[in-house]
Each structure stands twice: as C-alpha cells, then as structure tokens.
Amino acid sequence: MQHTIPADLINRVHLADALSVLRALPDGCVDLTLTDPPYSSGGTTSASRSQVPSSKYIGGDVKTVYPEFQHDSKDQRSWTFWCMTWLAEVYRVSRNEAHLACFVDWRQLPSLTDAIQAAGFTWRGVAVWDKTSGRTRPRAGGFAQQTEFLVWATKGAVRRADVYLPGVFSERLAHPKRHMTEKPAQLARDVVRLAPAGGVVLDPFAGSGTFLAAAKGASLNWIGCELEPTYHRVATARLAELDTLPAAA
User: Fold this and answer.
1) Above pLDDT 90, what percent of the chain?
2) Could you tell me if residue 30 is inside a domain?
3) Which residue ranges does the record assign to the DNA methylase N-4/N-6 domain (predicted)?
4) Fewer CB within 10 A of the terminal residue: the chain, N end or C end?
5) What is the span of the domain harbouring residue 137?
6) Could you tell me the CATH number of the domain that includes residue 110?
7) What is the Cα–Cα distance from 125 to 134, expressed in whole angstroms?
8) Stretch 211-235: mean pLDDT, rounded?
9) What is the CA radius of gyration of the chain?
10) Considering its fold, how many domains does the chain have in total?
C-alpha cells in the first residue's frame, strides 16, 4: 500500500540518522533512491580502515582541508549488516518498480550487491564513474584507482520509460569540492531521470546535497538525511540557492 509523505518530511534535508528518518516514512512512497553511503573502506587492514576519512580518501598533494565525517571505520561484515539494515527500510519505502542507485568502491562492491539482494531488491547491474585521467590515484607496478561504481537495482520489474543511461560516466570533478567524497553534478542530473515526473528522490546520506540538488533542479520531490552538522549546513544552503536562480526559459 502507498501512502502520502507527511509535509514535514518531504523536500527537506533532515539533520538526523538515516534510519530514524527512513522509519518515519510511509510504505511505498519513493521512486528513486540515489545515495553514496560511507564506504568504511580505504585500506586492506583494520588499522588502515580506522583512519579518519581524509587520510583514506584525499591524496597527499591536495591542499584543501575538508570537514571529516564519522561512522566510516566498520569492518566488512558489520558494514554489510549495516547496509542490509538501512536497505531493508529503503525497500519498504520504495514504490513497486522504484530504482535504487548506490555508489561504492571496488573493495565493498561484493558486499553491497549481497546486501542489496538480501534487502529484497533485484540487482540489475553496475555502472562506472570514470574520474578521468586527471583525477586518478596512480599505483606503482599496478593499475590506477580511477573509478567508483554505481550499483543499480529495482523493487520488482523495471519501469518502462524513455530513459537510456550509459554504463560509463566519464566526469571530471572540479576542485575544490564541497565534500571530500563528492560526486559529479552532471552524473546526478543524468541519474535522477530514472524518477518519473513529480516523483520522489531519496538520499539517506546526503553529504553536500549533490543528488538532492539534481532532484530539485529537475522539479522532483526529494528527501535527504545528513548526520554531520557541517555538511547538513552545506547541503541546506546549496538547495536554498536553487530558489534564487532564474527559471529556465
């Protein structure tokens, strides 16, 4: 059964834990979940994974100082269980034929695809974000770390729509970023096309608000959660700025 979303929950970035907001949403109300959760990655040992995010995800040549974020040091089993927990709630609040598009890195890709299926979604495939050659992390004797992955799944069948997205998004992210793990705005604008006109886009881990801004810019409804006060302020201000822009001709 599908229900109307309460007015105090929709078109807002909530300064709250994702699960608390998800549990407040009614069944079957979301058309697309586009999100980028903490990866709890960045190393092959527990010691390396326990470092602060800037030590794991920011190159030594980057001078910009980004605010840190918490809850990024789980081991792989606890991270997988945590993903199953919030993904089960995302499944509940999703409409039939709703899409899920979730970012992940190469280390956690197998765990995420397991968690997505355990939550009830049908895994449909994996798209690639190619950061382009100017944004790689080269490795002597091996391959550069140049990509992240976007896992695609649906609740039930794939909704028929005149939308054709590429399997590889080659997008160079301009510096300085708003968030140390920010994703490209154009990629977000492409992916929100999966939501129907007037639909609802959910991002339980909003960060600097890239995905929510794409949804709002496409005249979609949106719901965001961000636990870190600094990034909540960034996302809220970014979305408010869209209200001051002139309407498209």
Assistant:
1) 69
2) yes
3) 30-235
4) C
5) 12-242
6) 3.40.50.150
7) 27
8) 96
9) 17
10) 1
- Encoded tokens for 127: 């798209």
Q: What is the pLDDT of residue 22?
A: 98
Token pair listed for 29: 């109300």
CA–CA distance, 16 with 20 (Å, rounded to integer): 7
Nearest C-alpha neighbor of 85 from the set 60, 118, 51: 118
Q: Is 18 part of any domain?
A: yes
Task: Single out the residue of 79, 10, 89 nearest to residue 38, CA to CA.
Answer: 79
Q: How many residues does the chain have?
A: 249
The Cα–Cα gap between 159 and 147 comes to 28
Distance from chain centroid for Cα 6: 23
In this prediction, residues 2-30 reach a mean pLDDT of: 95
Question: For strand 30-35 and strand 200-203, is the pairing parallel, antiparallel, or unpaired?
Answer: parallel
Q: Is residue 247 part of a domain?
A: no
Give the pLDDT confidence of 111-144 residue by residue, as tens digits. Answer: 999 999 999 999 999 999 998 876 677 788 999 8
Question: Does the residue 211 lie in any domain?
Answer: yes
168-205 tens-digit pLDDT: 999 888 766 665 778 999 999 999 999 999 999 999 99
What is each CA distance from 243 to 184, 220, 221, 247, in whole angstroms? Answer: 21, 14, 14, 9
- Helix then strand then coil, in percent of the chain rounded to 5, is 30, 20, 50
Q: Which residue intervals of 16-160 are DSSP H helices?
A: 18-24, 46-49, 53-57, 76-93, 109-118
